[in-house]
Amino acid sequence: MIIMNSEPVLIYSPLHINHKVSLDCPDQPERLDEALEELIDIVTVQDAPNGEEYLPLFHTPDYIHKVRTICNELGRGEINTIIDNCFSQSTYQAACYAVGATIEAAKYAQHARRAFAFVRPPGHHAWSDKEGGFCVFNNVAIATEFLRQQGERKILIIDVDLHLGDGTIEYVTKTPNTSYFSINCAGLWPHGDQDQFERCENIFLPSGTSDARYIQVLERRLTKTIERENPSIIAVSAGFDTCVHDSNTFEETFGGSFNLTSDSYQALWKILDRSLIPYFAVLEGGYDPLSIMDGVESFFNRE
Ligand SMILES: [Zn+2]
Questions:
Q1: How does DSSP classify residue 260?
Q2: pLDDT tens digit string along 107-160?
Q3: pLDDT tens-digit series, residues 97-108
Q4: Cα 151 to averaged position of ligand 1 atoms, centre (Å)
């Protein structure tokens, strides 16, 4: 059991801005930088390193080659869209730094210091061999595999994004000494059910869920899961598309939403603080900068 040091770190790469997307994609570059402008006085920011060397911890050589080639073949300003994923000339590079930031956050957790990888593109819908849902490389799966290969006894991934992390589930179902806990909005892509996947506990709450119900589920279910799994480290896929600000803007895009405020995110971090298990977080969804501000601020400032 390790007590986490008090001053957390935000790990960020300005290169994310070069991952260009089409105008109708919710993962706009401004979502990070507008939030960061407001957060800059309360966070310690550290530059992310390049994480390219870690991609094979989860992704197939063919898929890594495919992403690199697509990006290399694009001209300046060109955008290639595969289903709802956008690729531009620098997407591969931005995605490598998102992985690097997440690995760095995981290393901080190993040294009992909290860290938040503030990245785009997000990762939890990326499978070992395909992109999906604005995700290119699976940041949290790669960082978890890094920790496992470092000898961590057990890693629990907690995914609080509005959507099920189907790519992360692919990783966990194939990987011993890992487990996955998620709270999602029922009825949304990429779908799944409660007991479908080995080592995964997926809770689906109705669209419109607000703080009281969400916090009750966190207290009842997550606390028990942490006790039962007894991980040596916890990785959080921190998606803030559950926030009321995203609900206002993106409910129709996603087909459902939650109405959470920072009260729910505070409750999550407090449960993790109480567990005395080291943890780190990586940004997933959250498309209105106000949602990201509320979520990230709660990681750094306990009420
Ligand atoms: Zn999401």
A1: B
A2: 999 999 999 999 999 999 999 999 999 999 999 999 999 999 999 999 999 999
A3: 999 999 999 999
A4: 30
Q: How far apart are the first and last CA of the chain?
A: 24
CA quadruple 157, 254, 68, 108: dihedral positive or negative? negative
- The full length of the chain comes to 303
One-letter amino acid at 249 equals T
**What is the DSSP-derived secondary structure letter of residue 257?**
-
C-alpha dihedral, 293 to 167 to 54 to 281, nearest 10°: 30
Cα 207 to middle of ligand 1, angstroms:
13
Whole-angstrom Cα distance, residue 277 to residue 279?
Answer: 6
Domains, the chain, with CATH or none: 5-300 (3.40.800.20)
Ion ligand 1 nearby residues (CB, 5 A): 161-163, 239, 241, 285
227 CA distance to ligand 1 middle (Å): 27
Cα distances (Å, whole numbers) of residue 153 to 110, 114, 169 = 12, 19, 19
Pair of tokens at residue 27: 């993962």
